[in-house]
Amino acid sequence: MSKFRENIFVRFGFELFVGIISFIVILLFKEVGMSSMALMALLPIVHRKKHLDEREIHLMYKIGNFTAGAVFPAMVLFYFFLPSINYLAALFVSFFVLHGLIGLIVFSRG
User: What is the pLDDT of residue 3?
Assistant: First the structure.
């Protein structure tokens, strides 16, 4: 069980899952749906932090840079295609979804 909790794919998969669930709930319930992002408080229960080696630290920085570069175009898409959504909620949701997705892609490719 401890190897499962230390797996980095669990962390990014959980972020992707919370982002998708939050997006759906925010579309359905508007501002009240922002409470679904409280699921991220369960991350320490789902994933235990392990000591990362130099390669994993480099990949984490790479994921952060890719996420920062991808959130801006996502916000532009939210602005044009979903103008009624709360932009702060859209920022959080796009960050969680993109960080989880990019993290899974980068760590699976090495």
Answer: 67
